[in-house]
Amino acid sequence: MFGIKLNPHNDVFFSILELQSAQAVEAARLLCDMVNDFTNVEVKLQRLVEAEKKADNINHEMVQQLSKTFVTPIDREDLHNLAFAIDDIVDNIEAAGTTMVLCKVKQVTPYARKMANIVLDASAKLNTLMPNLRSMRDGRQQYIAIHTLENEGDDLWQQAFASLFEDGSNPLEVIKWKEIYEMMEESIDSIERVAEIIEEVIQKNG
What we know:
The chain is mostly helical. The chain has helices spanning 11-36, 41-68, 76-102, 110-129, 132-135, 140-163, 171-205. It has a single domain (11-201), classed as Up-down Bundle (Methane Monooxygenase Hydroxylase, Chain G, domain 1), CATH 1.20.58.220. α4 (110-129) packs antiparallel against α6 (140-163). The radius of gyration is 18 Å and the shape is globular. It starts with 10 loop residues before the first helix and ends with a helix. Residues 1-8 have low confidence and may be disordered.
């Protein structure tokens, strides 16, 4: 489906994971484009939805390859967990964008823009970490960078949540932004979860 062929070393699985992480970066980029310039949002959301569908297709390719391959380069369960954890990243990113449009957000908050930028930065660092699986090379520097961004995301979420109750906001606005902030935070958390799995796999197989 994606021009990937099996070879004796089963590099196909690493290629699929790298495609998935690259697709997570693309989804994060599209979310940033939406929140940094909140115009033509229906068109931008459609691009984000299409990116999520492509991510689903790549994940399906992993499932197909696992079903027909007897010997895998790392544990089958690890490949499965990685693929679905990366897919969760894109799902959360798409959900944040969809909620903004469905809830008819008129103006994006500075907190949302900052959180979206963290999602993009963290997903880009995950994308540089993913190839380490091929050689089982230590990726601690990238992992620490992702963990630092996740902490920044947590701090931002707390500030964003607190801000909802500081200025007597409309209760409906509080509800919608609480959902959006939580989806963005979950996107960042999902990225760290993938990095943690990668680190565990490298420690186990390195």
